[in-house]
Structure formats: structure tokens, C-alpha cells
Known about the structure:
The complex is a heterodimer of chains A (about 180) and B (about 300).
Chain A: E1 3-7, H1 9-27, E2 33-38, H2 42-57, E3 63-66, E4 97-105, H3 109-118, E5 126-136, E6 147-153, E7 158-163, E8 173-178
Parallel strand pairs in A: 2-3, 2-4, 4-5, 5-6
Antiparallel strand pairs in A: 1-8, 7-8
Chain B: H1 17-34, E1 48-53, H2 59-70, E2 74-79, H3 91-99, E3 105-110, H4 115-120, E4 126-132, H5 138-152, E5 159-163, H6 170-181, E6 185-189, E7 205-207, H7 210-216, E8 219-222, H8 238-245, H9 249-253, E9 260-262, H10 275-278, H11 285-305
Parallel strand pairs in B: 1-2, 1-3, 3-4, 5-6, 5-8, 6-7, 8-9
Amino acid sequence: MHKRLVLDQQQISIVLKRFCHQLMENHDDFENTVLLGLQPRGIVVLEQLVALLKEIAQIDVPYGYLDATFHRDDFRRRDFPLKANETKIDFLIEGKKVILIDDVLYKGRSVRAALDAMIAFGRPAKVELMVLVDRKYTRDYPIMPDYCGIKVNTLESQYVSVEWREKGFEQDAIWITEKA
Amino acid sequence: MSQLSTRHLLGIKNITAADIELIFQTADNFKEVLNRPIKKVPSLRDITIANIFFENSTRTRLSFELAEKRLSADVINFSSSNSSVKKGETLIDTVNNILSMKVDMVVMRHASVGAPHFLSKHIQANIVNAGDGTHEHPTQALLDAFSIREKLGDVAGKKIAIIGDILHSRVALSNIFCLQKLGAEVMVCGPITLIPKHIESLGVKVEQDVMKALRWCDVANVLRIQLERQQIKYFPSLREYSLYFGINKRMLESLDKEIVVMHPGPINRGVELSSDAADSGQSIILQQVENGVAIRMAVLYLLAGGK
């Protein structure tokens, strides 16, 4: 199967550190900021970012996991329902600056569903979107990231796979792969 | 796996352990939804569900209706007491009339055993059995097992005694199927007249001494005496039943372990369960009711999502 490397381990590490510094620039002491990782794949990015923020700036930011399965717009349009993942948000987001975190931004439908799901926890003051990879020219909804690791040109016949060492892969890496 | 092996929930007998596990995992997610400030998700917003109750119900009907509304479904309610059934309409005609109004799912309770199975052969909509006579009440069994799993961590390997009117109880039969599929040991206990003949063939233990049953079990699921289904006298009096089979706090405290007390409701306080036992810390009766909404949301979501 043909696949092309987009970011290797070192480049991913640089991107995550850049994200930390961008967040520190925009959110001062993070007093009113919370991080929400989108289930399932945004969680790894979130956890890496939380650890880095602590390491670089000794900052503990409240964070949670958001699952948008029950808010998706393709229910009954698939052959079978998607299996939900855990939502774990131990705080209200009322009046908070929320940073939604995912690995790949493609059609924008998951983010739309996540924005809908998030509202159940309050009315945020502001919402920003952070993604490792932005697949250009593929959006179905007017959704753009505020923080982006890399923008890539892809075809419908391709998908972007994000591999993490903690998920059993040899190296952290992001690939563009032809669908089987 | 994220799909049930069936497009109707007619009974526990014809679903698999994997189906039950999928329903539990989905109910875990819905339980979290029910604890949010906004307890509603839009999953079933283009789905219409008819709650068709040919028999009385309070909590099951409210629980289904709440589950449907939490999932954003449109809901219509029907009860036989104020319907054309009284004018002689057949079951299929009644349901087909409702379905011609573009209803996608039917939740039905009926006094006749097998009514939802019969209906499933004649209509396209997904059917959820909310109780058919003395046969099955699948969502009650699911919420009972889910509550045991929540309280004790697992159902497998646990000993569950179902105590009371087994003969007339659809909850008992569905519970036996469900608990056994999940790997629990089941005992039934009650007056010999209220234990169905040959029930041992289902692989359950039978006991007539309620104290022996309580000493054996980890969980006592206490059932109501269903006087409305009893055409003849099965025991001399409620007072005598209560003396021999009623459970009270003193009996629970005399055990050398703390067992869990359950009841599907409605409770006849002072008959099968005393108030001090029903309201004790060992009772999870209100948690059962709370879990009922999450379980029914999971069942409706999974059935509606399949093609």
C-alpha cells in the first residue's frame, strides 16, 4: 500500500511545543481556559499537550474528553450506529475559553457535532479549534482551525493516519495512505 | 461490534450476551448524558415512536417516554382504555393505523404472551417489548442486570435469588435468561404454588425457604404478588404470605454478609418487602429506576441506528 510520511516523530514534537507556546501567548495564565479532547483520537493529542504545558510552563489546565457520537448528523445514514466513547468533563464550560483538540480536520462534521455536544456543559465565552493536520479543500462545513500543525493536500481516495507510540506503534508519525 | 443482532427487542431469550454487553456499554454513555446539565441529545430527532400500552403501567411507560424525549424522538402515546380497541379493532389494524402516520418504532405492552412477536411478523417498524403477559419484560431484566453490574462490578459469578410470584412474573423469566447469559447463578424462591412446574429445566435452583435463599445469594430480587393475574387462590392470605416469604430488615441483618436488595416495583410495602428493608442502604430500588432510562435510551438508539 502506497503511503507518504507527513510528519515524523521529531516534527510532531516540534508542532506540539509550538502549540504550547501559542496557547501561552493567547491565554496568559490559563485562568479561564479549559481543554477538550475529541473522542476518540483527539485524546492522545490532548494528553501530550497537557503534559507538555506542565513540563514547559508548570501550568495545570483543566481538561476533559468530549464524545460527539450522539450529536452526529449521519445517524441512520450508516449501516449500523457508531459506538460511543466516554465523555468525561468534571467542570462546567460556562463563560470559559474552550480549546477543542483533534488530530485530523477533514469534513468538519465531527467538529460541528462536538460544538453541539459541548453546549450541554454550558455557554462558553469563546471556542478555539486545534488540530495536528488540516486536510485542505475537503470541508463540508465552514470550520477552520485556530491552531494547525500542518496543512496537507489530499484526495478523497486517501486517508490520514496518525500513529502514536503509546498506541503500540514504533514511532509517532503521520501518514497519508491510499484507502484499500 | 456496534450493532445488535436483531432489529426488534422482543425478549432476552433471542438476543446474545454480546448484544447485552453492547446495550450496557451504550447505557454507560447515556447515564453520563443523564448527569449533564442539559440531559438531551439529538440522536433520534427524525424518529417517531409510538408507546402502545394495552396494559396499565406507570414507571415503564414514564421511563420509555423520558428515554425517548431525552433522545429527541417524537412521541405518541396510546392506551387501550380510551381507544378503538374497545370498539373491537384488531391488534394489527390498530398498529397499522398508527404506523400509517409514519411511525418508526413501537414500544408495546400487551396482556397476551407473544403479542409483540406476532406483530413483528406483520409490520416494518422496530418493536420493543415493554411486557407481554407473563412471558418477558426485556428492558426490566436489562436494567436489573445493569444495576447489579454497577453495584457489584460484574454479573458473572454472582448468585441472584428471585423471590416471590415467579409463576405470573415476566420479570422473572427475562431476568433468568439475562442473568444466565451473563454468567450468573440464579435461584427462584416462593410458595410452591407460585413456582412454575419444570422451571429447573432452565438451569435455576428452586428454594422454598426464604432464609436459605437469602443466605445463598449476593442479590435478592424481590417480586410483587401479582394479584391481578391470579384467577384462583395460590396462598391463604397476604398476611400469611408476608409471614413466610416477606423480607424485612431484621432478616437482612441476621445474615453474615450484606446482600443487595432489588425490586422492579411497584412495591407492596409490608407484603413482599417491609419498609425498613426497601428503604435500607442495601436497597438499590431507586437506582434501578434511574438506570431504566439509560438502558431504554441505549435500546432505542441501537435499534433505531440499524438499517
